[in-house]
Amino acid sequence: MEKIQGLIDAPYAPFDARGEVKLSIIKKYASMLVKNGMKGVFLNGSTGEGCNLTGAERMAIAEEWVKVSPKDFKVIVHVGTCPLKSACILAKHAMDIGAWGVGAMPSAFPNIARVEELALYCKAICEAAPGIPFYYYHMPVFSRTYVPMVGLLKEIDRLRVKNFAGIKFTNECLYEYNQCRLYKKGKYDILHGQDETALCSLVQGGARGCICGTTNYNGRVQNAILEAWEAGDIERANKMQNYSQEVINIICKYRGNIVGGKRIMKLIGLDLGPNRLPFQNLTSSEEKSLKKDLERIDFFSKCNIL
After folding, report:
1. How far apart are CA 190 and CA 172, in angstroms?
2. Is this structure's pTM higher than 0.70?
3. Residues 97-139 pLDDT 10s
4. Cα separation, 253 vs 293, whole angstroms
5. Which of 137, 177, 243, 254 does the annotation list as catalytic?
6. Is 210 helix (H, G, I), strand (E, B) or coil?
7. Catalytic annotation on 137?
8. CB 7 within 8 A of CB 218
């Protein structure tokens, strides 16, 4: 099974001023991501407010991304939702419209507490979309699914799930990340999912493929980390990683990537609208403050370009 190389972006849900899905801006969005070196997208996940979208909205967004994306641009659709049956419907839809792959984070309730249960959850979604790769979305701080990932891979092997491709690993435990990467001599594609520690994972021999949230606006810097590492320029790679963390420190000040990051998109010229409740949008004064903080670190000379 193919292993992903490069950066996969986690795009925002595009809304109009009234908070309704705005499909018309996705073509411009896709073009911007390609221009800044992204290799694909991971739709309708945490950054994309999948939890705040109806099933019909998620399908419409997936259809539009598949429609407007270049042939070699990987469209991976996050299908995780509370009823497993609904997740399977979304997975089949993604396969039917020509998406490259699917992924899923389980809902926090009912909580999955055992490896065996999680493997069966993944197996059901894989069987709903047997023709495309599936990635488990490991982000326990959101899903509350704290089970060992190497244990999951072993159970997936026992169940012989053919299209289980790997894990989107969004967690601070780089030891566990590396153990998953080394499992059976690299059998599975373990995608690094934490922009703050990209360089650390490269040192371990991983991060050939990453799924990132800050690449929506800071993709040129994240790519620079990978490029500097490949060129053997450790000093520049470290400098770019430290700068990436500076940007992340700022977005954390403004309610995180889902809220603050989405407002940055407006500041760089691609207004993707407000967030839906329960997310609290930035006020006008907060937006001005955000812009000043970004200017202080010379962000607008380094950020993505339209």
Report:
1. 14
2. yes
3. 999 999 999 988 888 999 999 999 999 999 999 999 999 999 9
4. 10
5. 137
6. strand
7. yes
8. no
